[in-house]
Fold:
Amino acid sequence: MEILPFLLWPFIASLILTGIHAYLGVHVVERGVIFVDLALAQIAALGATIAILVGMDPHGRGAYWLSLAFTFVGAAIFAFARSRRGHIPQEAFIGIAYAVASATAILAMSKATGETEHLKDMLVGNILAVDKQEVIKTAVLYGVVGLFHYIFRRKFLLISTNPEEAEARGMNIRFWDFLFYASFGFVVTSSVAIAGVLLVFCYLIVPSVGAMLFADRVGPRLAIGWIMGTLVSALGVYFSVLGDLPTGATIVCTFGGVLVLMFFVHLAFFHGHRAKALEGARSANPKDAAPQRST
Structure:
């Protein structure tokens, strides 16, 4: 019982991460830009590294806003990298951005002596160190981002699932892509500071992939993703305490184990003639896009 107060806010933080990332993950998987989270997270980490290099407090507001500025630059690059004719896959630009940002962060950190521990925290995070104030601040920020996506949900969903139809309706694809990636950047910059790059990636992708095994429509996918994320968060925190293990890494491994279990359940009960064709992870090329599904 003495452990419960210690785990309360980290668990609430994991639920908040589940709520926003499971939703964003649906869009990311549909767009086929699976590693955009890692790329934006690494770009945000590069911003934090530069902040350290120039003498800013790594946990101060200056470092946060510099990281956010870097993610906005990344958002602009990814938005304008979407080629109408698909000559170069958007994922190629994302991979290049991730590699360059990672290498630049390593070069910058090599000049910032005594701060290598902060670079490790950006990768694996330390969700157990989160406090009540940080959780509330993050919840408010994610609530604003969630409201923004709810207001424009039809536009974002149409671009993610059927960019050809969106373009036919006269929508400015690159403008809405920038808004999507910019709002995504707000989430990633805060999430990485709490949980690290690896855990944030799992919260984004694994619930959406697991939900795709059992549902084709967006609504059911969200419900399954949220349930999965909540269950894995609880199990991960419990296993980390039980085995005296790092919480972030334990949750990541729990995500992997639960996803494998869901896959075998899918094979046992849904595979074969009763299985639905799973969609998603399409190319950003409008020629490859399938008709929009109902939501």
Q: What stands out?
A: The longest helix spans residues 4-31. DSSP finds twelve helices and no strands in the chain. Confidence is low (pLDDT under 50) at residues 278-295. The two ends are 43 Å apart (CA to CA).
